[in-house]
Write a structure and sequence with these properties.
By secondary structure, this protein is an alpha/beta fold. The chain folds into two domains: 196 residues, 2-enoyl-CoA Hydratase, Chain A, domain 1 (Alpha-Beta Complex); 46 residues. The protein is built from eleven helices and ten strands. Strands 1-2-3-5-7-10 form a six-stranded mixed sheet, with helices on both faces. Helix 5 crosses helix 6. The longest helix is centred in the N-terminal third of the chain and has 20 residues. It is globular. It starts with 5 loop residues before the first strand and ends in a 10-residue tail after the last helix. Bound molecules: coenzyme A. The site of coenzyme A has 16 residues, from helix 2 and strand 6.
């Protein structure tokens, strides 16, 4: 499947999706959001994909935000729908995927770009990365989950400051804040993501999917995370992966998980 605004490549169980609008610093227009939904959904449903890596094309930007030219003339109603549709199609969608999804932040991750990176399960950044939620400088607030996920990741006070000042933080500060897990050179960014993907792929994909659900439950209103954990823990006992994992341990050999 080919896309106008994305490059998709699969190798050794890892699907790398590159947002490819470098002339607009990979800004997320409606079409790109729809294509991302489609590409991520295909990867999630493919037996060839065990891990998804999301990145931006070029050396300057991961994603410089939602495409401002598309919503500059929107009404109150259209603004609300823009956020709701985007959250449903892309941001909540990614967060709740059972396939581990890593953001490789290779430059500016601003507004919707940082929100996209935050919707991924975790993030690595290159040392030139700059991150921020500058929406209030445009007279609007983050609408793709930024007001929720930024404080979850870095704490309320830091999130308040970043949002109110509309400022950018560099990769080192993002690492210090816990917004990204590692900082590497731009050259090493994808190889490092692939190395972590390799470690993930040795484990049970079914158990990983259930662990994602349980961890996410901690951040969902009206969901009891401990109950979600118990439910998913119990469900693991009915999987072929559990039988293989425990049998392999007792037989002192490497597990070969069927992913069922
Ligand atoms: N929406 C639409 N177009 C965008 C964009 C966005 N969020 N971010 C960058 N672009 C476009 C620019 O309009 C420009 O297009 P043009 O060459 O047709 O004029 C192109 O990408 C390059 O950007 P430019 O601003 O010239 O690059 P720069 O190096 O001078 O500045 C940034 C880089 C990231 C600081 C600057 O582009 C910027 O502030 N972008 C908007 C960030 C933002 O507010 N995001 C949140 C949106 S809710």
């Amino acid at each position: 499947m080919s896309y106008k605004n994305l490059l998709v490549e699969n190798s050794n169980g890892v699907t790398t999706i590159t947002i490819n609008r470098p002339s607009k610093l990979n800004a997320l227009n409606k079409e790109t959001i729809e294509e991302l939904h489609d590409a991520i959904n295909n990867a999630d449903n493919s037996a060839e994909t065990k891990v998804i890596i999301l990145t931006g094309s070029g050396e300057k930007a991961f994603v410089a935000g939602a495409d401002i030219s598309e919503f500059a003339n929107f009404s109150v109603n259209e603004g609300g729908k823009l956020a709701a549709k985007g959250q449903e199609l892309l941001f909540d969608f990614i967060e709740n995927l059972s396939t581990p999804t890593i953001a490789a932040v290779n430059g500016f991750a601003l507004g919707g770009g940082l929100e996209l990176a935050m919707a991924c399960h975790f993030r690595l950044a290159s040392d030139n990365a700059k991150m921020g939620l500058p929406e209030v400088s445009l007279g609007v607030i983050p609408g793709y989950g930024g007001t929720q996920r930024l404080p979850q990741l870095i704490g309320k006070g830091r999130a308040m400051e970043m949002v109110m000042t509309a400022g950018m933080i560099n990769a080192e500060k993002a690492l210090n804040y816990g917004l990204v897990n590692y900082v590497t050179t731009q050259e090493d960014l994808l190889p490092n993501c692939q190395k972590i993907a390799g470690k993930i792929m040795r484990n049970s994909s079914v158990a990983i999917g259930k662990a994602i659900t349980a961890i996410n439950a901690n951040f969902k209103d009206s969901v009891n995370g401990f109950e979600t954990e118990i439910e998913n823990f119990g469900a693991c006992f009915g999987t072929e992966d559990f039988k293989e994992g425990t049998t392999a341990f007792l037989e002192k050999r490497q597990a070969n998980f069927p992913g069922k």
